Amino acid sequence: MARTPLVAIGALLLVAGGAVAGYGVTRKPSGGLTPQASEAMGSSIAQLDGDVKAARASVKERATTFAGYRPVKAAVSTDGSTAKDMLARGELQFSPQAGEVIELGQIQGDKIETLLIQPEGAMHSPRAGKPGSFVDLMGDQVAITEVAQVTPLEIRPPVTGGYVMVVRPLDLKPAIDRLAAAGVAGTIEAGGEKRTIGAPAANADLQTQMIPSLPDLKLVVAVPPKTGGLNMPLVAGGGGVAALGLVLLVLGLIAKPAAAQAGLSATQPAALATAATQMSQPGMAVAAGTPSPVAPTGMPVSPTELGPGAMIGRWEVIKRLGSGGMADVYLARARGDAGFEKTVAVKVMHPHLARMSRAVDHFLDEARLAARIHHPNVVAILDLGKIGNDYVIVMEYVDGVDLDRLLTAARTAQRPVPLDVALGIMCRICDGLNAAHKALAPDGTPLNIVHRDVKSANVLVSKQGGVKVVDFGIAKAAQQGHNTIAGETKGTPSMMAPEQRVGEQVDVRADVYSTAAVAYEVLTGHGVNLDLAALAHLGIENWPHLPPPSSLRAQLPPELDGILLKAMSYNREARPADCAEFEATLERIMKQYGLTASDKDIARWVQAELAQLPALQPEAYTPTATP
Prior knowledge:
Layout: H1 3-26, H2 35-68, H3 70-75, H4 80-88, E1 101-108, E2 111-118, E3 132-138, E4 141-150, E5 161-171, H5 173-181, E6 186-190, E7 193-197, E8 205-211, E9 214-223, H6 232-254, H7 258-262, H8 268-279, E10 311-312, E11 315-323, E12 327-335, E13 341-349, H9 357-371, E14 381-387, E15 390-396, E16 400-402, H10 403-412, H11 419-437, E17 459-462, E18 467-469, H12 498-501, H13 508-524, H14 532-535, H15 549-552, H16 559-567, H17 579-592, H18 599-612
Antiparallel strand pairs: 1-2, 1-5, 3-4, 4-5, 6-7, 6-9, 8-9, 10-11, 11-12, 12-13, 13-15, 14-15, 16-17, 17-18
Helix pairs in contact: 1-6, 2-5, 11-13, 11-17, 16-17
């Protein structure tokens, strides 16, 4: 057979076989969650997370408050009959909210004795007498429980202690119905109990989605198996044809005249071997200048692969720091010449949200808005990019802990925040928020940014005493290209200004309100729940229905009562005009009482709290990543 036909036939078979095999390999799979199901799952998790946060904050605050009342401490020293008489006389003022159950009891060594339950006839909880936070799944409801320890005014054997328990049911049915309507099947699970959603396929893959604010409650979704991916008959058949073509092609080339064969360069085999060696090393690359911190092109980021040593652009993952409703956050570093190393926090958007245009808009807005704010009291955004199908924000790494965890530790141990430190932290928060409110677009136009989710969990305090506001994930600016859907409320209800809670247009005075709520917690050591929906039955008179701060902590200057409660006025017109004005009032108090707080003073307090509770030792930045 002539050489030319062999070469031609071999080349044709090689190309045809390769095309068939390639189609079998790359054929687009079908199955998996539909975009509608993915969006329903993301929105349901976000809604559940917000509802759980509000419920937990409420029951914890109520249980803690009840446990501190003197009549409650007196009642646990008595018996059930006396406790009921005290309730009838009005000495014990337990007023359960809708669906809520309040239980008061004694601890007698290993024995639990229930004194009274409100409303009368409500079911006794097995969590009674065990201090802590609990979640129990009961059909279409999840019971959020907080048990607070009560110290009796008088120890009368066999009584050794007491407890007060607040249980609030959270209705899961709206979320379950929304998921089922979108074709999502699986289970909602908590404490070994399960509630089935839809009809999961027997051969489905299971995908677990945690509720960020309550890891004990999780959504396990049955993902339909993907079909139509690797087609082995096509791959095998195409591979066989290609192999035959390669044999014919080689035979045709071997048939060359000896003279032509002799003309080959002696260096060509070595060159071919070198090329093959390079192709077998997919990690090899030649750097050309300094790459972007987030490469616009590159391998997709896979959450299952982001362990220590994994790469996100040019950033090497050290470890995972935390997870929120919208993203995972990783501690990462980049290394350069002469021992240069920079450590950052990298936020990677959850893959199922990256397919939702509105979620992507919010994620990108966080970086765009925060990048326009240049201030030492706001976490700096270093870069924003897309790797494969994943969206990534690179931000300043704060070696510290969020204020919420510090306050929780201090409150649990009954260690009030030093007054100078508390006011110093609040002034720095105001300063950072004021910088956000006054930020300008590149053309000098005011951006009119409103954070809309100011809370202690969104304030980071470093071991060096730095205070930084973080998480502009739901911030609003005048120049944003998309709007919140009518009736959609984003933020933390327990810290939210009334006008924001009902979906009205907000301005910087909404941030003033939330900042004052944080100040109340920092200065008094008591948590607050100012959810308008939960307090609507109290009306707006005497809003925010909180006792004067100085009545909760005797060392507080009485002037702070009016300052904080005014800043939390129901009507925004009665509040300070902005955070700068609110900060000025706090600074006047500090000056009047000779208080100062340097970064070193704040750092000493942080280090002291961390030393008391080693379990709190952060490796640092753990944002909420608000959905």
